[in-house]
Amino acid sequence: MPNTTNLIEWCTVRIGEDHNWWVTEVSDDVHWDVDGLSIVDPRQISHLIDLVEPIREYSFDQDAMDRAFIPFKIQKDLGEGLVRLQRTNESLLDTEEPLFGLPDVVDEENGPYADFLNHISKIRVRMLNDIIDFEQPFTVDELEDELREEENNSFIEGRAVHMFDEITRILDYVPTGWEVDGDEEDEVEEEEDIDDYPDIDDEEAKKISESENLKWDEDDEEEKEDEAYQGGPPDEEDEVEEKE
Fold first, then answer.
1. Long-range contacts: 117-120, Cβ < 8 Å, 24+?
2. Would you say residue 228 lies in a domain?
3. Residue 100 φ then ψ, to 5°
4. Is residue 199 one of the residues assigned to a domain?
5. pLDDT digit string (tens) for 115-158?
6. What is the number of other CB atoms lying within 10 angstroms of the CB of residue 231?
């Protein structure tokens, strides 16, 4: 049986109100369902790589993470918040090119992405049991039950769970009432700008990387202009009145 993930060559994504990217169309609509299908952007991939650093000493399998995502590069800005992505052979973990990662969810229960979630869940639990003195060993089932409750609440509220949030909830998870020193924040640095990524050789991609649609972080400081007094010096009469 052919690998169905090899059939997807491009996808169209949009930036949502939550500042995450969501898939709207794929080249292979037979095996892929775009309803609620999310994709991680270069900034999020970089953050995930940082988050897995603490669990590497607990037998984290980097290949499991690499297999879980299909890499895409920017091809064309379609306007109105839509961007066309083209599949690439570059590795998300071994390249400086800003890439998007589409989680391989063709098989939601037994595919590479599902395997990756299971893997990091086990590793996170192993780490928690090593650094926290629980009365009873903490289990993967307990972690999954709590995360499942959060997902159900999102479903009830009509909110789709972005896969970046799904992953970070596992990698940042700490049982209620406990703290883990040195755990990284689950929020991405808001000061980071897409312009910090290496230049893209393709001229069209360069243009897109500078567009408003691909600026994940807005610099509010640019909008706060100095409101200092712009008029000329005060009249002498005004100065006298102030002294009196």
1. 117/166, 117/167, 117/170, 119/60, 119/61, 119/64, 120/52, 120/55, 120/60, 120/167, 120/170, 120/171
2. no
3. -95, 155
4. no
5. 999 999 999 999 999 999 898 999 999 999 988 888 887 777 77
6. 5
The boundaries of the domain holding residue 128 are 4-176
**pLDDT higher for 103 or 241?**
103
SS3 166: helix
Q: Of 165, 194, 219, nearest to 38 (Cα)?
A: 165
Which one is predicted more confidently, 203 or 5?
Answer: 5
Q: How many other C-beta atoms are found inside a 10 Å radius of the C-beta of residue 84? A: 17
Q: What SS3 state is found at 180?
A: coil
Domain annotation covers residue 163: yes
Strand order in the sheet with 38-39: 38-39, 21-26, 10-15, 82-87, 69-79, 100-103
pTM for this prediction: 0.72
What is the bridge-based pairing of β-strands 69-79 and 100-103? Answer: antiparallel
d(CA 198, CA 74): 13
Examine residue 226 and state whether it is found in any structural domain, yes or no. no
Instruction: Please tell me the total count of domains within the chain.
Output: 1
Residue range 16-46, pLDDT digits in tens: 988 999 999 999 988 899 999 999 999 999 9
In three-state secondary structure terms, 96 is coil
Nearest-angstrom CA–CA distance, 73 and 89: 10
Contact (Cβ atoms closer than 8 angstroms) between residue 170 and residue 120? yes
Written as six digits, the tokens of 18 are 């939550």
Cα 5 versus chain centre, distance: 21
